[in-house]
Amino acid sequence: MLLCALPLAGATAVAHAEPARPEVAKQVKAYASADGVKVSTLRYGPRERQQALIQVIDADSAIDGKILLASTRTTDKDTRYTVQLDGRPYVLLIVSEAAGELYVPGAPKPTWVRYDAGLSAESNPEHYLTDYQEQAH
Predict the structure, then answer these.
(1) Is CATH 2.40.128.200 correct for 21-136?
(2) 11-12-13 Cα angle (round to 5)
Protein backbone atom coordinates (compact mmCIF):
# COMPACT_ATOMS: atom_id res chain seq x y z
CA MET A 1 0.00 0.00 0.00
CA LEU A 2 2.86 2.38 0.77
CA LEU A 3 4.39 1.75 -2.67
CA CYS A 4 1.22 2.97 -4.39
CA ALA A 5 1.23 6.25 -2.48
CA LEU A 6 4.82 7.18 -3.35
CA PRO A 7 4.38 7.54 -7.12
CA LEU A 8 1.34 9.76 -6.58
CA ALA A 9 3.26 12.01 -4.21
CA GLY A 10 6.03 12.38 -6.80
CA ALA A 11 3.54 13.20 -9.54
CA THR A 12 1.99 15.89 -7.38
CA ALA A 13 5.36 17.55 -6.81
CA VAL A 14 6.06 17.62 -10.55
CA ALA A 15 2.65 19.08 -11.33
CA HIS A 16 3.31 22.04 -9.02
CA ALA A 17 6.83 22.81 -10.23
CA GLU A 18 7.64 26.46 -10.85
CA PRO A 19 7.43 27.50 -14.51
CA ALA A 20 10.76 28.29 -16.16
CA ARG A 21 11.82 31.93 -15.91
CA PRO A 22 11.96 33.77 -19.22
CA GLU A 23 15.38 34.61 -20.59
CA VAL A 24 16.44 38.22 -20.00
CA ALA A 25 19.45 40.32 -20.99
CA LYS A 26 22.48 40.30 -18.72
CA GLN A 27 22.21 44.05 -18.09
CA VAL A 28 19.44 46.56 -17.51
CA LYS A 29 19.88 49.70 -19.62
CA ALA A 30 18.88 52.82 -17.71
CA TYR A 31 18.46 56.37 -18.97
CA ALA A 32 17.86 59.60 -17.05
CA SER A 33 16.77 63.14 -17.84
CA ALA A 34 18.34 66.32 -16.50
CA ASP A 35 15.30 66.81 -14.23
CA GLY A 36 15.33 63.32 -12.68
CA VAL A 37 12.96 61.26 -14.83
CA LYS A 38 14.35 57.75 -15.27
CA VAL A 39 13.51 54.94 -17.67
CA SER A 40 15.00 51.46 -17.72
CA THR A 41 14.77 48.64 -20.24
CA LEU A 42 15.54 44.94 -20.13
CA ARG A 43 15.36 42.51 -23.05
CA TYR A 44 12.64 39.96 -22.27
CA GLY A 45 12.73 36.53 -23.89
CA PRO A 46 14.89 35.47 -26.82
CA ARG A 47 16.31 38.35 -28.88
CA GLU A 48 14.31 37.31 -31.96
CA ARG A 49 11.01 37.90 -30.08
CA GLN A 50 11.86 41.61 -29.96
CA GLN A 51 10.35 42.26 -26.54
CA ALA A 52 11.56 44.20 -23.53
CA LEU A 53 10.41 45.23 -20.10
CA ILE A 54 10.34 49.00 -19.57
CA GLN A 55 9.82 51.07 -16.43
CA VAL A 56 9.43 54.84 -16.06
CA ILE A 57 10.18 56.39 -12.65
CA ASP A 58 9.64 59.91 -11.26
CA ALA A 59 7.58 61.05 -14.26
CA ASP A 60 4.31 61.97 -12.44
CA SER A 61 2.28 59.73 -14.75
CA ALA A 62 -0.22 56.89 -14.45
CA ILE A 63 2.50 54.48 -15.62
CA ASP A 64 5.06 55.72 -13.08
CA GLY A 65 6.76 52.78 -11.36
CA LYS A 66 4.95 50.12 -13.40
CA ILE A 67 6.97 47.63 -15.41
CA LEU A 68 5.41 47.29 -18.86
CA LEU A 69 5.95 44.75 -21.62
CA ALA A 70 7.06 46.45 -24.83
CA SER A 71 7.66 45.32 -28.36
CA THR A 72 10.91 46.64 -29.82
CA ARG A 73 11.80 47.60 -33.34
CA THR A 74 15.41 48.32 -34.19
CA THR A 75 16.49 50.01 -37.39
CA ASP A 76 19.88 51.36 -38.45
CA LYS A 77 18.72 54.71 -37.02
CA ASP A 78 17.10 53.90 -33.64
CA THR A 79 15.27 51.46 -31.37
CA ARG A 80 11.59 52.05 -30.54
CA TYR A 81 9.83 50.62 -27.50
CA THR A 82 6.07 50.31 -28.02
CA VAL A 83 3.67 49.44 -25.18
CA GLN A 84 -0.08 48.91 -25.13
CA LEU A 85 -1.92 51.82 -23.46
CA ASP A 86 -5.71 51.82 -23.35
CA GLY A 87 -5.68 48.97 -25.86
CA ARG A 88 -3.62 50.87 -28.43
CA PRO A 89 0.08 50.77 -29.37
CA TYR A 90 2.01 53.69 -27.88
CA VAL A 91 5.67 54.49 -28.62
CA LEU A 92 7.06 55.19 -25.16
CA LEU A 93 10.79 55.44 -25.86
CA ILE A 94 12.96 56.06 -28.91
CA VAL A 95 16.70 55.53 -28.34
CA SER A 96 19.51 56.28 -30.76
CA GLU A 97 23.03 55.45 -29.58
CA ALA A 98 23.27 56.65 -25.95
CA ALA A 99 20.32 59.05 -25.81
CA GLY A 100 16.70 59.34 -26.78
CA GLU A 101 13.22 60.69 -26.23
CA LEU A 102 10.78 59.42 -23.63
CA TYR A 103 7.12 60.06 -24.45
CA VAL A 104 5.45 60.05 -21.03
CA PRO A 105 1.66 59.72 -21.43
CA GLY A 106 0.00 63.04 -20.65
CA ALA A 107 3.21 65.08 -20.85
CA PRO A 108 3.09 68.08 -23.20
CA LYS A 109 6.41 67.20 -24.87
CA PRO A 110 8.95 64.37 -24.94
CA THR A 111 11.61 64.12 -22.24
CA TRP A 112 15.20 63.90 -23.46
CA VAL A 113 17.09 61.08 -21.71
CA ARG A 114 20.70 59.95 -21.76
CA TYR A 115 22.22 56.54 -20.95
CA ASP A 116 23.28 56.36 -17.29
CA ALA A 117 25.98 53.75 -16.64
CA GLY A 118 25.67 54.12 -12.85
CA LEU A 119 21.91 53.51 -12.81
CA SER A 120 22.36 50.60 -15.20
CA ALA A 121 25.00 48.98 -12.98
CA GLU A 122 22.75 49.35 -9.88
CA SER A 123 19.92 47.39 -11.52
CA ASN A 124 19.81 43.60 -11.25
CA PRO A 125 18.15 41.94 -14.28
CA GLU A 126 16.83 38.98 -12.25
CA HIS A 127 15.27 41.28 -9.62
CA TYR A 128 13.74 43.38 -12.40
CA LEU A 129 12.16 40.24 -13.89
CA THR A 130 10.88 39.12 -10.47
CA ASP A 131 9.31 42.55 -9.88
CA TYR A 132 7.55 42.31 -13.25
CA GLN A 133 6.26 38.80 -12.55
CA GLU A 134 5.02 39.76 -9.07
CA GLN A 135 3.33 42.89 -10.42
CA ALA A 136 1.43 40.77 -12.96
CA HIS A 137 -0.24 38.71 -10.18
Answers:
(1) yes
(2) 90
Boundaries of every domain in the chain: 21-136
Q: What is the mean pLDDT of each run of 10 residues along the chain (137 residues)?
A: 48 55 95 97 96 96 96 97 97 96 95 98 96 87
How does DSSP assign the chain, residue by residue?
-HHHHHHHHHHHHHHTPPPPPPPB-SS-EEEE-TTS-EEEEEEBS-GGG-EEEEEEESS-STTTT-EEEEEEEE-SS-EEEEEEETTEEEEEEEEETTEEEE--TT-SSPEEEEE-HHHHHH--HHHHHHHHHHHH-
In this prediction the pTM is 0.84
